[in-house]
Amino acid sequence: MVAIYQSVKPLPEGVNINSTPINVSQNNVEFLSDLTYIDPDGKLIHDQEIFDTMFALIDSAEQYILIDGFLFNPYLGRMDSCHRKLTEELSKKLIDKKHSDPSIKIDFITDPINTWYGGKMLDEIESMSEVGVNVYYTDLTKLRDSNFIYSPIWRIFFQWFGNSDKIGILPNIASSGSEKISLRSYLTFLNLKVNHRKSFITHIDGKIYSIVGSANPHSASSAFSNIAILVKGDFGKDLYSAEKSIAEFSGFSLDGDSVIEADPQPEMTSDDDVKMEIITEGQIKKSIMSLLEDAIPGDSISIGMFHLSNRQVIQEIIDTSKRDVFIRLILDPSKDGFGYPQNGVPNRPVAHEIMKKSNGRIKIRWYHTHGEEFHTKLIINKKSNGESTFILGSSNITRKNIENFNLELDVKITAKTTNDLTFEFLDYFEKIWRNRDGDYYTADYEVFEEKSKLKTIIYRLQEFTGISNF
Question: Distances in Å between the alpha carbon of 52 and those of 12, 58, 93, 252, 436?
């Protein structure tokens, strides 16, 4: 009974939402990307915009900053080094901001995995707290359990023991050289659910600036390829409201009400406006399914995705291709993970199924990673009627991510195909699909093709039971 209830129980208020669409001037929306690739001379290149943009906004911030970031720790797994120490950079940036402007209010929401559920405190978090940054941890117990085999055991027997930040007896798999952690940390970790959102809000010159994307402020993830959207204006009110729901069910309060929820500033409207809405948790799946179901002959759908394993969406992708909708996928090959070799699950057996069942109608390429990951989450529907739809944000296309288990936040954008923002999205995808200008981003499907029936069974069992990292 515990397993059944905890997997279907009512969600906290403010979770699983689809906000009312709002019109935003295309001049107030900017596409951001981080890309790691090989240039024509064979040199590894890191082109990065997301956190550099965020850091510049922090420098200019007035009155308030809100960050919701899933991974925020300096651990490198089995990696010897990282591209940049993002966790340390962000921590220092916020501390410096507090020193230069003690009156500014800063709320930092994160997932308790970063402290191993209270089992290991981080210097970066303690340093931020000491200067007055409000660091909050999401109460994951209020969410549904995706791991219905183990989580009932934890809820009945183990959760009551709490945790301790004393040195434990087990190795820290997130950092091979770190102090050991407690058994209680691992017992909580095995629930395998998270606050996976990646959101940023601040206030500059009377205007709200918001960033939603796929990038974590995480040192070991600093070389990952990611995307994000920067929005100026009252879109930030809806984003703040979505983040406020986490605070309310987790038992803390945000400090930005008087700043973010002030009277809206009217925006100039034009025919080039884009329509934007926030979609979270299960509403993301509904939006993806609708996008696929509504596609008609002449439309084209382009998907760039870190993890693809949701059975209903996979089948709908295949069915959509049968209606003469042109579909392309760029997937991470599932071979790199913080220095730990991966076995290709779930993406490689999924790709094999899609190629086989679509008779090759669906085209697939792999992002060729070099120890990092292709961490983008993006869906593009270029419609034949002159309108395009984009879905991007934190969510992978997996059971945990889009069926009301993890906390996720995406943005759905509708724009004319002639819109400048549409061009930026399409240009991004075409560049990496075609390896434009001699740069090497993506590899042919055959490079990482995987026909193993065993791996198909493994990924389907992991997807069904929730015993997985995807």
Answer: 34, 10, 11, 29, 24
Alpha carbons 55 and 126: distance in angstroms, whole number: 20
| DSSP per-residue letters across 227-289 | EEEEEESTHHHHHHHHHHHHHHHHT---S-HHHHTSPPPPPP--TT-EEEEEEETHHHHHHHH
Reported pTM: 0.97
Quote the pLDDT of residue 265: 66
**Mean pLDDT confidence for 172-191:** 93
Residue 127 has pLDDT above 70, yes or no: yes
Supply 180's token pair: 């050991």
Q: Is 92 exposed, middle or buried (0-12, 13-18, 19+ CB in 10 A)?
A: middle
Contact, 120 vs 172, CB < 8 A?
yes
Q: Taking 90 as the threshold, does the pLDDT of residue 212 lie above it?
A: yes
Q: Token digits for 417?
A: 């195909």
Rounded to 5 degrees, φ, ψ at 228 are -160, 165
Count of C-beta atoms within a 10 Å radius of residue 470: 22
Tell me the two tokens of residue 20.
Answer: 């009312």
Residues 6+ apart with CB under 8 A from 367: 225, 304, 330, 331, 332, 333, 374, 376, 432, 441, 442, 443
* CA distances for 365 relative to 121, 247, 419, angstroms: 41, 40, 27
For 273-323, write each residue's pLDDT tens digit.
999 999 999 999 999 999 999 999 999 999 999 999 999 999 999 999 999
Q: Would you state the structure tokens that stand for residue 240, as one six-digit string?
A: 């703040």
pLDDT confidence bin for 269, thresholds 50/70/90: low
CA distance 75 to 367: 25
DSSP result, 70-113: S------BT-S--S--HHHHHHHHHHHHHHH-TT-EEEEEE-GG
Yes or no: say if 402 and 377 are a contact pair by the CB < 8 Å rule.
no
Rg (CA), the chain: 21
Q: List the single range of 116-120, 132-136, 173-177 with lowest mean pLDDT.
A: 173-177
For 346-362, b/e burial (b = at least 16 CB within 10 A) is bbbbbbbbbbebbeebb
- Going 281 to 114 to 95 to 93, the CA torsion angle's sign is negative
Tokens of 146: 């995706």
Q: Coil, strand or helix: which one is 333?
A: coil
Residue 212 and residue 229 in contact, taking contact as beta carbons nearer than 8 Å: yes
Axis-axis angle for helices 453-465, 347-357 (nearest 10): 110
Q: Rounded to whole angstroms, how far apart are CA atoms 86 and 299?
A: 39
Whole-number Cα distances in Å, 211 to 11, 208, 389: 25, 10, 18
Average pLDDT over every residue of 91-98: 98
The one-letter amino acid code at 178 reads S
